[in-house]
Amino acid sequence: MTRLAWIAITLLLLLATVGLDSHLDIREVMRDREWFLTRTGPEGAELQGVRGEVKAITAIIAQDAPDRALVHVRLGLAGPKEAREAWVDCRVSLRDGQNRVWLPLHANAADKMIEMLAPDGVNNRLCGPGLEVAQADRTIVSDQLFLVPVAVTEELTVHVSGFGTRPEALAMKVAPSIRMLP
């Protein structure tokens, strides 16, 4: 073969490699982002066979930090076992009208605070059940705690998605009840 043929084959293989690699990267980005939203109120909606809803949402404001609010969100996911398995890597976030994002607090202190702030005193842990919980014949209930500016509590949206549902997600417009702590 001539040199020109080897160069052409090399370029074709290079283009095929780049094309395959970029295709895999694009699929990974699509799986990691929430691109297609089903907008609803706190009563929730169904997404890929599972009904998601906000069971309770409360904003707690302390007098010594009047510019910040702890927002406790209790979610419920109900549906057939097969559909709930798509929610194994459940992701919850709060967003405001400017699309700023707040993620749940992950700490032992947050777990204790949820137990103190929840109406029934129970912490159902973060959204993101293990496969054994998703396969159980019951509604998946989870609790999240967020720290947000008080100014955004009137314009919050809860976004929820699972590994098997992304790039689709639920976006539930909520109005938390406000509790002032002494």
Write a brief structural summary.
This protein has 182 residues and is an alpha+beta fold. The protein contains four helices and ten strands.
Describe the structure.
The chain has 182 residues and is an alpha+beta fold. The protein folds into two domains: 1-32; 35-181, Immunoglobulin-like. The protein is 27% helix and 37% strand. It contains four helices and ten strands; from the N terminus they run αββββαββααββββ. The strands form two sheets. It has a five-stranded mixed sheet, with no helix packed on it. The radius of gyration is 21 Å and the shape is elongated. It starts with a helix and ends with a strand. The mean pLDDT is 85.
The CATH architecture designation of the largest domain is Sandwich
CATH fold assignment of the largest domain: Immunoglobulin-like
- DSSP summary, beta strand count: 10
- Specify the CATH class of the largest domain: Mainly Beta
The number of distinct helices, counting runs of at least 4 residues, comes to 4
Largest sheet: 5 strands, mixed
Query: How many domains?
Result: 2
Give the C-alpha Rg. Answer: 21 Å
- Helix/strand/pairing category: alpha+beta
Strand content: 35-45%
Low-confidence stretches: none
How far the N terminus sits from the C terminus, by CA atoms, comes to 85 Å
Shape: elongated
Order of helices and strands: HEEEEHEEHHEEEE
Mean pLDDT: 85
- The amount of helix comes to 25-40%
Order of strands across the biggest sheet? 1-9-8-5-6
